[in-house]
Design brief:
The structure is a homodimer.
Chain A (H helix, E strand, L loop, with lengths): L1 E2 L7 E5 L4 H12 L4 E5 L12 H5 L20 H8 L1 E4 L3 E6 L4 E5 L5 E5 L2 E4 L3 E3 L12 E2 L4 H12 L5 E5 L3 H12 L3 E5 L11 H13 L3 E3 L4 E7 L2 E7 L4 E3 L2 E4 L3 E3 L2 H5 L23 E3 L6 E2 L6 E2 L4 H17 L12 E5 L2 E7 L2 H6 L4 E9 L9 E9 L5 E8 L3 H14 L3 H4 L16 H13 L5 E2 L1 H9 L5 E4 L3 H6 L7 E2 L2 H4 L14 E4 L4 H12 L5 E4 L2 H4 L7
Parallel strand pairs in A: 1-7, 2-3, 2-8, 3-4, 8-19, 10-17, 11-12, 11-17, 12-13, 27-31, 28-29, 28-30, 30-31
Antiparallel strand pairs in A: 5-6, 6-7, 9-18, 14-15, 15-16, 20-21, 22-23, 23-26, 24-25, 25-26
Chain lengths: 569, 569
């Protein structure tokens, strides 16, 4: 059967009904009420809040309907789409082929019946598929991904019945860590296995290690720098995860969270251009190599605004923005443009949030930037308002001072920090400009000098040669290499009693430093590493020592709060 | 006695020890370890967290030491300043005169002893004084301001002993509303009296009224558009506040929170230039009309970055940034520049936060801009994550699309919204650019399309003619003027049952609109006002009606959630 398009009416077909698709369909219809807009969805549900799956698995979200409903409590089903959006939504319906010459899509409904729909414009929002390597034993029962709502339904049920039992999550990225928290909330004993040296690859190691420590403190085992080699089983069920070093981790269930790949099967078969990263190639109008076909969401490659390079950015917020652009252009012609991504993201890991925007130090170096960075640890608001800790890292281009990226982790208000930094990165703001920002301030909400501004001050001081700082990672490396360095803790004796590095450091409280110079190395070229709890007093100490003629004083940035390794106490 | 400056050492004297002063002193010393930096402070305390006074008055902050301590718990007293900062701080010491010719400051200590100190550079951070008009009865006991820590000490003690008794706060600005909350937290029955038509003057009326409603719901009486005329008393104690209309409000205590004026006595007597707004005139280096005297904090006039006009901006965060610039320039020459303010601010009012950045609609119009605005009401995050409401207003320049200002109120996460908007305003971002922002998203933190982005989308649609919206205030005005309009509520019947306007509106749920056109006015030029709970469905309704040929459909922006007047239910 072929549905002929009514020639008087433009027909826009959207394939994919999770995030980009519904947005594209709704936008297209809004801008062209005369158009017929058809949304094809393989799953039974529409417009699922897929980023909420981990919170549904944990039981935090009580019912699956909550993931499918508008704020007013109406389920976003075909009836809703027809009435509220004027969009004809076909669920349980798969698009099996696109014929760009005939301008038609072949679909198959739940009963297996095939039809062919003609289109004037087509929008592909086919999303992504989880990357599951062909591990030995990958077909065993009890091995899950968390990609579809059906996945979430099953994992939720299994996890709820598995309290006290071991679970292994393969992959310590964003979804891996969210899944880890969800399973832990269900009472399971969770081990996360990450092949890279650090979890949460959008963070540099210094900040990533702090999140890892926090997850460990919550009872999660984290194994990094080690890949999964396969699965072991008994009676068709997974019983252990085998690591690349031969170790076996017994488990009741395993989740594979090794990222996603663009789902481009339909596009490729239709002869559309595919980019070098495996996503559908689109221009800034979200148009594919075919002038009548657009694409949006996880299935496309988008531009990194900072490097200009193509990138995969499978995030729900971008899917919506891209879908909006594709829908508008399909409806009224190519007038909207999607400017690309800067790589903003955030996730909750137990009581911590971890967020980043722009380029990490590693990515900035890889992109060829001459990079300067600063780490800052501070409370998020005044102590008398119940402050919580934030540790941040700012990455800037040495030549221009432009902020390239910002990362922030901790129990404090990471959300505001990363959001304001994201706008600064998008706007091309410099470190100096950020240091003069006029941001909202009141004690319940931030410090008088906001954490982001203070981070900019540290980096600005560093760029102007007023501050010689090293990350904890660099200081630790110097220790490991046996480099001679005088470790100077300038906190108070009570603080030292409660918590300390225990690596041979000398305690001279900052207030006494000016009168205790005789306890320091005589050699004015000796390397002195000054630190305190965060970094402020360490910085003051460096200025004092420099005033006294010491030429090689570095501040350990972020102080003990940013030290991601074991301490004496 | 004259302290001669050691000619080999630069002497920098800073007058004022609350916010700008300590920052200026510390920065100056850091950048010039050879300099002698002296901080003169009239009060017994230094570096007080003055923005925290309301939370100390309420008892939320347990001890006054918390307002005076570093995050590590060290009190910032002269010993701390000497040891940690290398700054000689003289407390209980008043600077009584400046002689710019002799380059000296005359001081008087607690015992009344006078000395004269020579300076190389002087930094005036003399702050502000509360504006207390010469009301009849202003000298009665029981009338307070909340400006100094001594004020806070007294008010805290009196309020704690006055539970159940009436208090009147004159002034519904930021400090007035924070004080109102503090007194209510102490159990007092509080009335706020504001002479202007609305409280919190940084908000436009539409948003201000929502905060006012919230304060009322918390048991506070709010009287607007009415000034205080004087105080009545018995036995030397205040017993009532008399309003301009002759009414008397009985009270056990009254707080005057009518704003602050720059404290420029010392500067004026020294012959320094004073600006037209009454603050010390400074250039971008925070230098006064005397090349050796700088000034920073509440006592100066700064530049509004948006209009270029001079303005008074007595905020703790700006005081710190200005002090940092003044300290640097006094220490090493004029190299740092303070770019001015955009007027960012935030405050807590019971369970609401209210924040703004840039220009309000009123201020933008006064500054001569051709202004477009949009109001948006939405949850701050997905419903399944425990969403709370945000209501925002974006103000933009019609010609360029540049965002001039953003206001946000509600129980949701106002903090992130105003912070990201502030950076956008500073960066000169356009509405269209904001609508394509790549911001951090995960369900615990925001909506997939962040509230700020969604607000930009509404305004962008409006600017492109896709959306004809009016604020609730405009719709209400049309009602009051008896203009014929068809009020169309497009929510569901259950929602209508629970809450409704009750102004003769017709309920047609959005999903049924396409099949119930016959219930609408026949005249396609009839004015139809479409609305729902927030604004999304109202917007959809408008598109549908337009598609049907209606030419005069407006959306009531922000829907019922932004309606600041009484409802039927």
């Amino acid at each position: 059967m072929t549905w002929k398009a009514d020639k008087a009416r433009k027909r826009i077909i959207v394939v994919g009904g999770t995030a980009a698709g519904p947005k594209a369909a709704a936008r297209a219809k809004r801008l062209n009420q005369e158009a017929e807009v058809v949304l094809i969805q393989k799953a039974p549900e529409l417009s699922m809040a897929s980023c909420g799956y981990p919170y549904y698995v944990s039981g935090g979200v009580a019912s699956r309907d909550q993931l499918l409903s508008t704020p007013a409590g109406v389920v976003r089903d075909p009836l809703f789409f027809a009435g509220a959006k004027g969009v004809k939504a076909l669920v349980n319906t798969e698009a099996t082929a696109v014929d760009p010459k005939a301008k038609s899509v072949t679909i198959r409904d739940a009963a297996g019946k095939r039809s062919t729909l003609e289109y004037d414009k087509l929008i592909l929002c086919t999303g992504s598929v989880p990357r599951v390597p062909p591990f030995p034993g990958a077909g065993l029962e009890g091995i899950f991904t968390l990609h579809s709502l059906a996945d979430a339904d099953v994992l939720r049920a299994v996890a709820a019945a598995s309290a006290g039992k071991p679970a292994v999550v393969a992959g310590g990225g964003l979804i891996g860590m969210e899944t880890c928290e969800a399973l832990a909330a269900s009472g399971m004993k969770v081990t996360v296995v990450e092949k890279l040296p650090n979890i949460l690859g959008f963070l540099d190691p210094d900040l990533s290690l702090l999140v890892q420590n926090h997850a460990r403190a919550k009872g999660v085992e984290v194994i990094t720098g080690m890949g999964v080699a396969g699965f072991e089983g008994a009676n068709g069920r997974v019983s252990a995860v085998r690591l690349e070093d031969g170790r076996s981790l017994p488990c009741h269930l395993a989740v594979v969270a090794l990222g996603v790949a663009p789902n481009v099967e339909l596009a490729r078969a239709a002869g559309l251009a595919i980019g070098s990263l495996g996503g559908i190639a689109v221009n800034e109008h979200m148009r594919t190599s075919d002038p009548d076909i657009y694409a949006a969401g996880d299935c496309v490659e988008v531009t990194c605004r900072l490097t200009g390079a193509k990138t995969l950015a499978p995030y729900g917020d971008l899917a919506n923005l891209e879908g909006r652009v594709a829908g508008e252009n399909a409806a009224v012609g190519d007038r909207a443009a999607f400017p690309g991504t800067i790589g903003s993201g955030i996730c909750k890991v137990f009581d911590f949030a971890a967020g980043a925007t722009g380029l990490s130090e590693r990515r900035a170096r890889n992109a060829g930037y001459d990079v300067v960075t600063a780490v800052n640890a501070s409370p998020d608001k005044p102590g008398f308002m119940g402050a919580k800790l934030l540790v941040s890292k700012m990455v800037a281009d040495k030549g221009t001072g432009r902020i390239l990226g910002f990362q922030c982790v901790g129990a404090g208000e990471v959300n505001r920090q990363v959001a304001e930094a994201a706008v600064a990165v998008m706007a091309g703001m410099t470190v100096e400009e950020a240091g003069m920002a006029d941001l909202p301030y009141a004690p319940p909400f931030s410090l008088a000098i906001d954490h982001f501004i203070a981070t900019a001050h540290i980096l600005d001081n560093k760029m102007k040669g007023l501050f010689e700082g090293e990350s904890c990672i660099e200081v630790r490396r110097a220790m490991d290499e046996g480099r001679e360095q005088f470790l100077l803790d300038v906190r108070g004796p009570k603080e030292f009693e409660e918590m300390r590095l225990g690596r041979g450091e000398t305690l001279i409280p900052l207030g006494q430093l000016r009168s205790r110079f005789d306890e320091l190395p005589k050699d004015k070229d000796a390397r002195i590493v000054a630190f305190c709890k965060v970094s402020m007093r360490g910085y003051e100490a460096r200025r004092i020592l420099e005033g006294k003629g010491y030429r090689n004083v570095v501040v350990m940035e972020g102080g003990l709060m940013a030290w991601p390794y074991a301490r004496e106490k």
